[in-house]
Design brief:
Elements lengths: L1 H28 L6 E6 L2 H9 L1 H26 L4 H6 L1 E6 L5 E7 L3 H7 L12 E8 L2 E10 L18 H20 L3 E4 L8
Length: about 200
């Protein structure tokens, strides 16, 4: 009985943690469509024809996923000297369309990875500021508290100053290798367009 109760508690805490992380992601990334690379085709027929060829569709997904995993590896190597936590938790996300083809790629990592990129931190915020939910650790799992935190108005406009210098680890890696994803798209589709405008931290 004690084992089952502990397992149920652990499961509930995990659900709370995952929900808190999703809320934190939505707050920090604004919408689900931001921080994503979109792979769109002008011709829906072309996407349909591709999906009918199971081997080719599988090969396309595999090549896209391999590219994203390689980018994740490079990002982890680049950030690990600044934050082991960001390096450890960074991973790629893949979203498929109704045909089972990858049409969105995202990268998840703790929000302070953006602070490192921009040179922001306590007392050194950006011009707009942000808001986030305070998390607490319960039984080794982080869960939401329902308490919202906001950037201190006195810190606005001070990012990239003092001991908080910008370390643009994310955008530089993506920009250097986005052409490889474009080449993959060209190998499989005639009308595919890569929209990477929303993936970058610095717009």
């Amino acid at each position: 009985m004690g084992f089952e109760k502990n397992r149920a508690i652990k499961k509930a805490e995990t659900r709370k943690y995952n929900a808190a992380m999703r809320r934190a992601d939505n707050l920090s990334l604004e919408t689900d469509s931001s921080r994503l690379i979109k792979l769109e085709t002008v011709s829906e027929t072309e996407r349909y024809q591709m999906a009918k060829d199971a081997d080719r569709a599988t090969a396309f997904n595999r090549d896209v996923e391999r590219w994203a995993e390689n980018i994740s590896r490079m990002l982890r190597l680049k950030i690990q000297s600044r934050s082991q936590t960001v390096a450890r938790e960074l991973h790629a996300n893949f979203y498929t369309d109704d045909y089972g083809l990858v049409h969105r790629i995202g990268f998840s990592f703790p929000r302070h990875g953006i602070y490192i990129h921009k040179g922001a931190g306590r007392g050194q915020g950006g011009w707009i500021g942000s808001k986030w939910e305070k998390l607490k650790t319960v039984g080794g799992v982080q869960v939401g508290t329902g308490i919202m935190r906001h950037t201190d108005p006195q810190s606005l406009g001070k990012q990239g100053t003092g001991n908080r210098r910008a370390y643009p680890w994310f955008d530089t890696t993506l920009r250097a290798h986005i052409h490889e994803l474009e080449q993959i798209a060209m190998d499989y589709f005639d009308t595919m367009v890569i929209d990477a405008t929303n993936i970058y931290v610095d717009k």
